[in-house]
Amino acid sequence: MLISSSNPDDTIIWRHDRSGCYSVKSGYRLLAHGGDLQVSVLNTPVADQVRRLYSALWSLPIPSKLEVMFWRFSKNYLPTKVNLYNRRFAITTNCSLCAVDLETVDHIMFCSFTTNILSQLGIPIILPLLEQSWIM
Predict the structure, then answer these.
(1) Which residues form the Reverse transcriptase zinc-binding domain (predicted)?
(2) In angstroms, rounded to a whole number, what is the distance separating the alpha carbons of residues 85 and 54?
(3) In the chain, where are the structural domains located?
């Protein structure tokens, strides 16, 4: 079955920009706005909560180092043993402090060593509000 009589050359078209050409700006826009995700997914209550959380985080009167650390924590971008192991930088994945569980972002917050220090400092421990369901 002949589809086209002219037999044109194949071309690459970036469908996420009107010009059809890829640019860093169009790639960023695709990632920042969810790409091919349906708009309804981006307007869910969970997505709204995440937006409000980050808006509140960036407006806190704290040093930017802490803002970035909290952001990295929420995105699982901290160099935990599990993350380092996945990138082939660590040999073991067990927590260096308690040696019981895998060292993940969640474990760091609720490790027996961490909770002991926080309780000695008089800092209340917030039980697992940081579930993977809101971390995007």
Answers:
(1) 22-115
(2) 28
(3) 45-75, 79-131
